[in-house]
Every structure is written in structure tokens, then in C-alpha cells.
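Collaborator request, handled under Task 6.
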Amino acid sequence: MSKFTDAATTSHTLSVVAMEEASRFGQRSTDIDHMLLALVVSEQVAGQVLRSEGITLEAARGAVAEQHSVQLASLGISSGLPPQGRIVFHETGGYEWSERAMAVIKRASGGEKRGDAAAVLRELVTEPSGMIDQVLQRLGSASDLVIARLDEVQGYPALTPKHAIQPGRRSGACEAFVPAPVGQVWELLSSQKRMPEWEPVIGDVELEEPQTEPQVGDRWTTHARTQRSDGKAIRIKPEFQAQDVELVSCTEEALIEWRFTYPDSARASVKRIRIGLEPAAGGTQLRISLWWERNSDSPARPIRGLLTRPLVRFGIWMQLSQLSGGISRAFR
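C-alpha cells returned to the collaborator:
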């Protein structure tokens, strides 16, 4: 990917996950500790390096909390930290980066630096306050160890990223890390009833019969989400309110694929989502593919397609980001 794409992708992903972490404490200012937690669950090299050091999300959250408690105690404050809750980022607003977090992001993309997660991690562990280095020490690591590990692994092409939008086609793929074992992730993805937990456009699922073990050929109906998490209504055209879903591929704890159609729209395209699962240190690595197949009843419009290609590519990228984020968030 280009430097701009690296930086843009990293900025978006880190912002969302870090602000989700801040929202667990009712905070709106997203700081460097939240940035570290976001990097721990990153699918990029930075996340792989941290997890190879034995740093899990749960352990990192605990170390961050301990560090804050020590800092408060040094100031004579014993009231403690606010209680941790669930992620409410998507139900609230007003989030922004702190000044020192924004400075880290800017330094990570300055000069010849790529602005990817590895560059952000390098800047973060040497951030002048020393807070992140202290957190790493609580986790049995240290800044110099993390940097040495980054130097060691960044030369391997297999560890380079992760998002791909295919030119000229309405399709794309991405990789994502989920901080949960493969079995738990499979349980989520293979459950028809649980689709609304990770698919952002689905509000509820209609089943004619109780689900048994997933089998290729299974079919069910979903209904579009009509209300955002913050209570605002979502306007959905009548012909797009229902989707028929078919399970077209299923290998237990390894691969699952669905085909989505709109029964009330004669010309709507068909959406397909395929997710591969692999065990990884501290959780599960996902390979998510998404593509749209043009309905044969819908006329081809090559000129219109050419003009709208940038918007289509952005839309595919956003759909992939929402899917990967939704699956990860279900376990955080």
C-alpha cells in the first residue's frame, strides 16, 4: 500500500478502537494508553509484535489501570479509577485525541515514516512522558525490546498488511485480529441469531426453525437495523428492509461464507461475505472477503461505474472495517 493509504487506514482503525477503549471509562479524551490498547489488538505488525511478547488485551488493560493508580497515588489521590464498563463509543459522541496522542500520530507519519501501526508503536514506546514504557515493564517487556522485535520482523513480507480493494471490481479483503480463541469466534459467526452482534446492517433475525449445527444450504431471513445505537432512526428503503441469507460454505472453526440477497428488489446486487479463521497468539486471525455480484436483471452502466469507482472502493473499505470491528468488539 502507499504511504497515504497506510496512514489513513491506521489512523481510522486506531481511532475507532482507542476511542472504544476510552468509552469504557466514560472518557472523551483518547490518550496514549488507549492507543496502546488499540495496537495490542491490531492485525498489523505492531499488534503481532506486542502479542508475541505475551501481551494480551486483558493484561494490557490491567497494566494500564495499575499505572494510573500509581500515578494518582503519587499525587496523594486515593479515590481510584472510574469503573470499567462496556464499549459505548457508537452510542455517544464528542471523542477526540489528546494532544500527546495526536503528537505521536503526527510523528509516525512525518518525513519518510509510513504512518502505519508499526511507526505509531515506535513513536508511542519512546513518547517523552515514559508512561508507555512503564506500562510495558509491568507487562514484562520494555520499549527497547519492542523496538528490537519490530526491527527483526518488519523485513518479512508475510507480516505486511492487510487491506486490499480490487481495482475495477466491487470486492475487497482485509485481515483482522480478534482477542478470543477460535472456538469462541466460530460460535459467534456460525450462529444465525447472533448476526446482529457483528453485522452492522442487521437488526434482527427471523428463523423458521430453531438452528441446529450449521450446514451448507441453510437459509434464513434478516431485517435491517432501523435505529442507531444513539436512538436515531435509520431510513431504509422498503425493498432493502429484508435480506435472505444462505450459508454457502462451512468448515468448522476454519471457514464460513454467506450469500445475501434482497427478495423485495428485482435488480439488487448479491452480496457475499467469506471469513477464514486461524489460531493466533492471544486470539484469532481473520481473513475477511466481501464482494458484490451484479444482478443479471440489472443493466450494465460502464460509464456510470467508472465515475463512481472511487466511491465504491471507499464503500467496500468501510464495509470491511465495520465487519472486522464488529467481530472484534463482540469480544472486548
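The cover message to the collaborator said: "The beta strands are 29-30, 96-97, 163-165, 171-178, 202-206, 219-224, 242-251, 255-261, 270-280, 283-293. The chain has two domains: 3-159, 163-329. Please let us know whether this matches your experimental observations."
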